# Entry
Amino acid sequence: MHISTQFYLWKFFMYQMTTEFLNKAARTKNYSGAELEGVVKSAVSFALNRQITMDDLTKPLDEESIKVTMDDFVNALHEITPAFGASTDDLERCRLRGIVDCGKAHKHIYQRAMLLVEQVKVSKGSPLVTCLLEGPAGSGKTAMAASVGIDSDFAYVKIISAETMIGFSESSKCAQICKVFEDAYKSQFSMIILDDIERLLEYVAIGPRFSNLISQTLLVLLKRVPPKGKNLLVVGTTSEVGFLESVGMCDVFSVTYHVPKLKKEDAKKVLHHLDVFDDGDLDAAAEALDDMPIKKLYTLVEMAAQGPTGGSAEAIYAGEKIDINHFFSILSDIIRY
# Structure
């Protein structure tokens, strides 16, 4: 007997009208009607697949045992993603090691950034809020911006970076950047991350050279007020704040925060979290890492974890400790940081 898709859709909604379903429904922010229909049909297909026996495809389906569970719904959400949703996977890639306590300065900047998120949510007179995170390369600017985007719980969060536009012409880059902003205007609350703005502008210190076309595009978009009822937060990151000042880019950001390198006390907190040094060696290691970008710190620790001859990483991460002398040897190989 053929059972129509409409029957399964009806059965899906009747079965799932529970508190758990309503909680899961909050995950469908920014889904269009067609995309929601796709989610439902995908969930139904997962339920149907459980009833199909590959050894005997002619076996009739047991209608009473066909039920769409919450697991089917979750799997469908993973399979069908909204075109105008948050790029969670891209944001998570920007903070592969997560976020750890690395000092008062970083914590203060994160808290200030989250206040800007709150401002975007409640403000009636500031539909556009912009923030620039500047600091040395590897100081954690992108990871912090990504964390703010994830924790903001905005329906639309996108990151614009040069790595996604390799080989694009200047006009193509401008068109792509404009499209992201136009898509952001379709949601009530949105956030855009402009990662490594100097790379987006194709900046080269020799000359200097940069793309004036992309620069003017960003300047216009960073001043453009979103449509009525739409609020937008833009967070930019840069390691060349002097260059951005020279082209007038810093002036269009509402606030600018300096993300510093780690001091001795900050490095000690990170090393304590990693738990790869003996307590007696922690101070010496932290002293050696004074004024170190956090990204470089992670790299050095991972290099030292391999051991003098390699193959020690698994044991280190299982509980053994890094030899402090080997760590100093690795550190001495770093000419510049």
